[in-house]
Hints:
It contains 7 helices and no strands. By secondary structure, the protein is mainly α. Helix 1 (2-26) packs across helix 3 (48-73).
Amino acid sequence: MVFEFIISLFIKFGLIGLLFSSFVSSLVVFPAYASFLIPLYVKLHFNPYLIFIVITVGAVAGEAVNYYLGFFGSKYIYHKEIKKAEKWLNKWGEMSIFIVNLIPIFPADFVNVLVGFLRMDFKMFVIGMAAGKALQYALIIFGVEIFLRYASLF
């Protein structure tokens, strides 16, 4: 009964619900994983390309908010406490942003706030973060599609 109610909500709100879920779950203040919704949307026969676009746009928008939370919040935090993180970012650079946003269950939201705090170039941040999120979601959608096709053979 509860499961049927949840499914009806996903069907009712469709991709707008996925966009909202993706945006909100990307915010550091509401940590969650919108990628867990992908199998459900695929199973409900939503267009995989639209799922990809919508979830990526929501996540990129949410992570941009996280960046600016760090950027503007940096005035209120003692800078000596962040030296270790700054060394890590200087060592790995933009590639680190790509990698942490590529890993599905990694808490990238916190890293993206930290990157804003360290005032990384916003364009480089968005490129690395968006590429990581997009590849993560593409792999999940592709994997779910393959699994569902394979599972339907039996």
